[in-house]
Design goal:
Layout: H1 4-7, H2 9-12, H3 15-18, H4 23-30, E1 38-42, H5 48-55, E2 59-64, H6 67-73, E3 82-86, E4 98-103, H7 114-126, E5 128-139, H8 151-154, E6 156-160, E7 164-176, E8 179-188, E9 193-202, H9 206-215, E10 218-224, E11 238-245
Parallel strand pairs: 1-2, 1-4, 2-3, 4-5
Antiparallel strand pairs: 5-11, 6-7, 7-8, 8-9, 10-11
Amino acid sequence: MADTHYEDPRLAAIYDALNPWAADTDFYLSLAPAQPARILDLGCGTGLLACAYANAGHAVVAVDPAAPMLALAREKPGASRVSWIQADAQSYRSAQRFDLIVMTGHAFQVLLSDDAVQATLTGMRQHLAPHGRIVFETRNPNVQIWQHWQAEQSRRQITVDGIGTLEIWHELNSVDNELVRFSTHYHFAQDATTLSSTSTLRFLAVETLLDNLNQAGLAIDTLYGDWNRSPFRTDSPEIIVCAKKRVESG
């Protein structure tokens, strides 16, 4: 289930301004083969990456649970080349097999239970071509980035074309083992309206993550710690997983 940020059309409309093309997008685009490939983008959001893949000549299926996000995605240049599907990563099923499966934007962290993680990873494996790769990222819990999700540290102001100026800040609600709950507030200067969205994210330790991959029949190909492809370390900001089907011995 998508949280309010993605289901509210007014908040969905500012998503691209808050999440523009950046180092992570460059990283994911660079994963695509030189030759046309079949790519599955799970949790595609407003389709920034999916359209870039399609414009590069790849056959792209893009999946997201939030209708307002998909509506914006369908308006992007190259959107007609993408197959857009409203579904979540756990329930998506297709007869197609893909050379590359990606889940970006820390979408993996909305999988709050072991069952949700296993359903998603198993589904990815089922949709993977024999020599395909799965790539996704999750924030490294060792860094405790949530400590910065306070109003005094996170407050910022942006201006969005057609919407005007808005002020945005986070408020940390609770930390319960792996689960971090926080609110994000959006104050629109145009009509003095404040909208709020509450989210819960799961911060899996790398050891737990690797165990989940193994249970799903997947093996690590590469583990990065940042978008510059530096190897993962205990103090890396990200856990960037590149995985493939595990080859059973015997």
